[in-house]
Design brief:
seven-stranded antiparallel β-sheet, 42% helix
Length: 233
């Protein structure tokens, strides 16, 4: 019996959400699922179409970058996932896509302000966009440096990855994370919708101001605060 069977199943199911939610076409995205006890993660194999995937095809990698289970090459973005698992303790799943609206903001090199309550419900602050990666970093180890760039962006802005589970990599696209693989895909879908709404906002009114702080706090606190009342108990 494969000791990573459950982990691979989780990763496969999450990866299948990408085409179902129209977050990527062809092979333009990947999800990983992290096992905190074993310090390994299962991730989509590189370049394999979604309709050709099954749980057994997932590749398991440790935090040193060594493949510990699977016969296929892991995603080309594996090094980015590895950096984020090492540097952002507590996350259990990561999603990367090239969804159109989020990638559009990333290609523009623009962070996404909190324009409305939908954004505030899921993150009470600007969704950050990294700087463009410099030439030396690209020559070094592109995917590893992508992870380093995300971590640096969060640390310099003093952002908590637990409260802001989304980032745009300039010129590239979005990465999201969560307590497990399924939640990381959920955040990818939320990010895409928020970026779509934000684009509509600045198209209709290029001078649109951010949502007032009291509304941002209200919508964040009613779902995530100590006295949250959204949903069922």
């Amino acid at each position: 019996m494969d000791i990573y069977e459950t982990l691979k199943e989780e990763a496969w199911e999450a990866n299948m959400e990408i085409p179902r939610l129209h977050l990527a076409i062809y092979t333009w995205g990947n999800v990983s699922a992290f096992d905190t006890q074993r310090a390994v993660f299962a991730i989509k194999p590189s370049g394999v179409p979604y309709d050709k995937l099954d749980a057994a095809s997932m590749v398991v990698v440790d935090l040193d970058g060594k493949t510990v289970s699977g016969s296929l090459n892991p995603s080309s973005d594996t090094e980015t996932h590895r950096v984020l698992y090492r540097e952002f303790p507590g996350i259990g799943g990561i999603t990367h896509t090239h969804s159109a609206y989020a990638a559009g903001w990333a290609q523009a090199g623009k962070s996404v302000p909190v324009f409305g309550t939908t954004h505030a419900d899921h993150g009470a602050e600007t969704i950050p966009c990294t700087p463009f990666m410099n030439a030396e970093a690209v020559r070094n180890n592109y995917e590893l440096e992508t992870g380093n760039l995300i971590v640096k962006t969060f640390r310099e802005a003093e952002k908590d990855p637990g409260n802001m589970p989304m980032v745009l990599v300039a010129g590239h696209g979005p990465f999201t994370w969560g307590k497990n693989a399924a939640q990381s895909v959920y955040h990818a879908a939320v990010l895409e919708e928020v970026c779509k709404m934000a684009l509509f906002t600045v198209t209709i009114n290029p001078a649109s101001p951010p949502l007032p702080e009291h509304l941002i706090r209200k919508h964040w606190e009613r779902k995530h605060g100590p006295n949250a009342y959204y949903g069922q108990k």
